[in-house]
Automatic annotation (TrEMBL):
InterPro entries: QueT (IPR010387). This is Membrane protein. The keyword Transmembrane helix applies. The lineage of its organism: Bacteria, Bacillati, Bacillota, Bacilli, Bacillales. Keywords: Membrane, Transmembrane, Transmembrane helix. It comes from Jeotgalicoccus aerolatus. It holds the Pfam family QueT. The chain crosses the membrane at residues 7-32, 52-83, 90-111, 117-139.
């Protein structure tokens, strides 16, 4: 990885962190994480995986679940980005990312806070799906202008 790609990854991580931390409804069972729009970027170009995983890890340090949310978020990202190597359709990748987010975040919320599993899975999964589909649309339409190859 060259210096330019490292810098772009750092900027993506920083933007993800800022968008998550300033969002008053970015964590919990009912969340609407605007920063998830960025999580689809590695589905278009795999060289941005480190930046997104780093951003998710740092941003999740600020959640009420702390280190548990860091582990869960990084795990979701690592699984989704690994599977994206085999799934070439960006829409399917956004879907699988959202499903993993719903299932794993709900499990953490259930185990730590005792929140209802299926309710959390549905709300987190659906909100993530909305954000990742918005991101997929944006980067499919404008990605060549926004992100360098």
């Amino acid at each position: 990885m060259n210096i330019r790609n490292m810098a772009i990854n750092a900027v993506l991580a920083a933007i993800y962190v800022v968008l998550t931390v300033i969002n008053p409804i970015g964590t919990g069972a009912i969340q609407f994480r605007i920063s998830e729009i960025l999580c689809v970027i590695p589905f278009f170009n795999r060289k941005y995986i480190p930046g997104m995983i780093l951003g998710v890890g740092i941003a999740n340090m600020f959640s009420s679940l702390g280190i548990i949310d860091v582990v869960v978020g990084v795990t979701i990202s690592a699984i989704a980005y690994s599977l994206s190597y085999f799934i070439k359709n960006v829409w399917l990748n956004a879907l699988q990312y959202s499903v993993f987010a719903g299932l794993f975040v709900a499990l953490a919320l259930y185990l730590v806070l005792g929140l209802p599993y299926w309710f959390s899975a549905a709300t987190v999964g659906l909100s993530t799906l909305v954000m990742t589909f918005i991101g997929t649309f944006i980067f499919k339409k404008f990605g060549h202008r926004i992100l360098p190859e």
